[in-house]
Every structure is written in C-alpha cells, then in structure tokens.
Amino acid sequence: MTGIMKGKRGLIMGVANNHSIAWGIAKTLADHGAELAFTYQGEAFGRRTKPLAESVGSNLLLPCDVEDIDSVDAVFDTLKKEWGSIDFLVHAIGFSDKTELRGKYADTSRDNFTRTMVISCFSFTEITKRAAAIMPDGGSIITLTYGGSTKVMPNYNVMGVAKAALESSVRYLAVDYGSQNIRVNAISAGPVRTLAGSGVSDARLMYNYQKRNAPLCRTVSLEEIGGTGLYLLSNLSGGVTGEVHFVDSGYNIMSMPRLDELKV
Ligand code: NAD
C-alpha cells in the first residue's frame, strides 16, 4: 500500500456486489489509504455491500435511491454531520429497463427514456451539486460512462443516449465547479461482466468481440479501472478536468476489426 490517498475521505455510490466497477475503484482507493463511505440501493444490495465496506474499514453505509431526492439529501446531511467535508466522490450508477436494451433504439418508450435519463444522467448533476457543497477545499468527482455514447453499440440504445448526456454534463459541471478547484471527469470503461452490464442484450457477444478486436487483445479488469479512478481522484491528476478517459484496452481507437481477426 502507498499512502497517496492518506487523509482523504470520499463517497462511493454504486456498489451492488464485488463485481461492481464502483467496488474495483473503492478497493484501490482504500489500498492507497482513503477513508470511504458507501451508499447502497435497497436492502438486498445493502446486505452485499456491508461486508465489502467493512473489509476496507468503513462503517458509513447509507441507503440511497437516486429516484428519491430525499434519500440523496439524507446522505449528504449525514456526511456533513459525520465528516464535515469530503475530498472525492464516485458516481457509478446506471439503469434502464432491460426489455428496451435490445432491438431498435427507436422503440424506446417515453417512460423508460425519462427514467433512464434521471437515474443514469441527471442524478450525476444532482449529486455533484450536493458533493461540491461539502468540498470547501476543492475535490475530485468521477462518473462511469461507455463508448456507446458516441458510437452505436447494438442493443445499448437509450443507455447510449443517456451516456452522451452524462459526458456532456461532465464538461458543464467541470466549468461550474472549476473555480472552486473541484474537478469533474468520467471514466469510459470497456465492457465488464457486472449486473448492469448483463442487462444489455447479447452482452457476452459484445464482450468477446471487444476482447478480440481491442489493441490489447483483451478486456479490462476492475483493478485497471480502479487504477484510473485512483489517478483521477488523487492529486496526480491535479490539472485534469472535464475529460472522458477511456479504460477499454484501446478499443475506441479502432475503425474496423483487427486484420488478424478478419483473416481467421
Ligand atoms: P453494477 O450493477 O454493479 O452497478 C450499477 C449500480 O447502479 C448498482 O449498484 C445499482 O444499485 C445502482 N443503481 C441503479 N439504479 C439506482 C438508483 N435508482 N439509485 C441508486 N443506485 C442505483 O454495474 P456496473 O457495470 O458496475 O455499473 C456501474 C456504472 O458503470 C454504470 O453507470 C454503468 O453504466 C457503467 N459502465 C459499465 C460498464 C460495464 O460493461 N459493466 C462499462 C462502462 C460503464
């Protein structure tokens, strides 16, 4: 362990289990000395998150459903009371009705479009605003996005549209809070086998396709995403804000499948 995050406190939102991207980032931050608080959505996820939080020495575990703004406010009230201030925040929250994560984007319903945007995009703005209010000495905030925001990924549909809006939010929020020395960035992760990831139809096919066609010829690990989380949330990235940083084995730079892959 190195102490790069020693003396820093932050909130992790989006751990569902030990496969969650938020957990990969949390574990890395804790390994480097950070003090963590966690939120969980609903009792079932709470039961899975509790032992994980305890394993990194955290006893601040708070319920939060971003569709219920009172529960979001309660989280930040508690943090203010317990800690006074925070230094960083991880937003790793996304949801869309999986029956619409297949087929045509054009078939997205109005209800699911709205719900997907509120949970997967607007919650980041609401949370950043509340986090910034308890970052008197500046801070760093990250969210998680996916390349389906700028290029069409089959079945990703409305989530791609929400991620495009999320990435744009990152840029606007970076300007809103830049003068307070609060940095706002996104990690664009390659496909990872998680609960949310498996909600997208043909997820396994997409996972294997990216594995074969990314420059590094593999997908990415939670530890690798965690490492980039550590960089973006620590002073190492002090001059970086408003960025979407890919951690995808380089897949995003490709314009066609690898030639060796086409020849087999
Ligand atoms: P996950 O299922 O482990 O995490 C998703 C989290 O979102 C869960 O903890 C869930 O409780 C939370 N959530 C959903 N609706 C919520 C609500 N109303 N209120 C509060 N929390 C809510 O899956 P994950 O893949 O680790 O997802 C984390 C983030 O990473 C998401 O934004 C996802 O879109 C993004 N992402 C995932 C991949 C991937 O391939 N898995 C790739 C790139 C980006």
TrEMBL record:
Stated EC number for the protein is 1.3.1.9
Q: Name one GO molecular function term.
A: enoyl-[acyl-carrier-protein] reductase (NADH) activity
Keyword tags: Fatty acid biosynthesis, Fatty acid metabolism, Lipid biosynthesis, Lipid metabolism, NAD, Oxidoreductase
Residues binding NAD(+), per UniProt: G14, S20, I21, Q41, D65, V66, I93, K163, V192, R193, T194, L195, A196
Active site residues according to the UniProt entry: Y146, Y156
- Which Gene3D superfamilies does its entry note? Enoyl acyl carrier protein reductase (1.10.8.400), NAD(P)-binding Rossmann-like Domain (3.40.50.720)
**Is Protein transport found in the keyword set?**
no
Per the record, the GO terms for biological process are: fatty acid biosynthetic process
The metabolic or biological pathway listed in the UniProt record of this protein is: Lipid metabolism; fatty acid biosynthesis
Q: Which SUPFAM superfamilies match?
A: NAD(P)-binding Rossmann-fold domains (SSF51735)
Q: Please list the reactions this protein catalyses.
A: a 2,3-saturated acyl-[ACP] + NAD(+) = a (2E)-enoyl-[ACP] + NADH + H(+)
| Homology family | Belongs to the short-chain dehydrogenases/reductases (SDR) family. FabI subfamily.
Name listed for the protein in its UniProt record: Enoyl-[acyl-carrier-protein] reductase [NADH]
Whose protein is this, by species? Roseibium limicola
